[in-house]
Amino acid sequence: MRRRRALVVSIVLASALIGAEPARGGDLVHSANPPLTANLARPVSVGWPAGPARLAARPLPAEPAAPAVVRAGAGTFTFASGPGQVAGQVGPVVQYRVAVEDGVGVAVDAFATAVEMILGDARSWTAGGTLRLQRVAATDPAQFTIYLASPITSEAMCREDWLETGGFTNCRLQDGRVVINSARWLTAVPDYGAPLETYQAYAVNHEVGHQLGFGHERCPEPGQPAPVMQQQTLGMDGCGANGWPYLAGQRYAGTPTSR
Asked: Which domains does the chain have, with CATH numbers?
C-alpha cells in the first residue's frame, strides 16, 4: 500500500514539473540558463521616459544681435588721447592720430585701441623694417589721421578728393586723412568669408598702405590669400580673405593694378 501511494506521488510531481509555465507579468521560472527568448520578452530601458512624459524642449541660443549702424553721425569728431606705444623695431617713427565721429556708437578709446593693435601687429607695415608707427594725441604733430566716420559723413569726406564711395567703401585722401566707413567696421562686407576682426585689419592696413605709398594689387591666383592692397571690399576674385601685408615674415603682394 505504501509503495502504491509513493508511486502516485512521484507521477504527480513529474507531471507538475513537465507542465510548468512562466508566472504572470513576464517573469520566468528561475533557471540557471534562461532561454534567449527570455531577454527578448523584456522591455529594454534606454533612458527615455515611456508614455507621454518627455524631456522639456530646450530653446536654441539666441543669435547675437547685429550691431546698429548709424547712417549719419553728428559730423564732429572726438580724438583719442596719446601718445601710444611705438610699434616696430627700426626706421623713422611715423605718427598718426585717431578720431571717431560723434554719434556712430563706437567709443573712441575702443577704436583707437583696435587700430593700435592692428598697426602694432608683427604682420603689419612695420614688419618691413623701414618704419615704426606711433599713435599720438590730437594736438601732436602727425603724418596722417585715421577717422571712423558714418556712411554719409565718410562719403562726403572722400568726395573732397573726387573719390566716389557710394557710402559703402573706405578711402584715403591726399591730405593724410584715412577714412574708415563705420558700417564696414561694424559689419564687414557680405560673403567676406572671415571673422569681422580680419576685415577690420584689412580695412586699416589697406588704407594706411595707400598713405605709405602702396597702390592696388590683384589676386595672384584663386585659392590664394588676397593681398592686403587688393580691393577686398569690392570682391575677392577667388582669393581668400587676408588682413595683413606680411605673411610668414615676407611682404605678400599681387600684380599692381590701376583699378
From this structure: 77-215 (3.40.390)
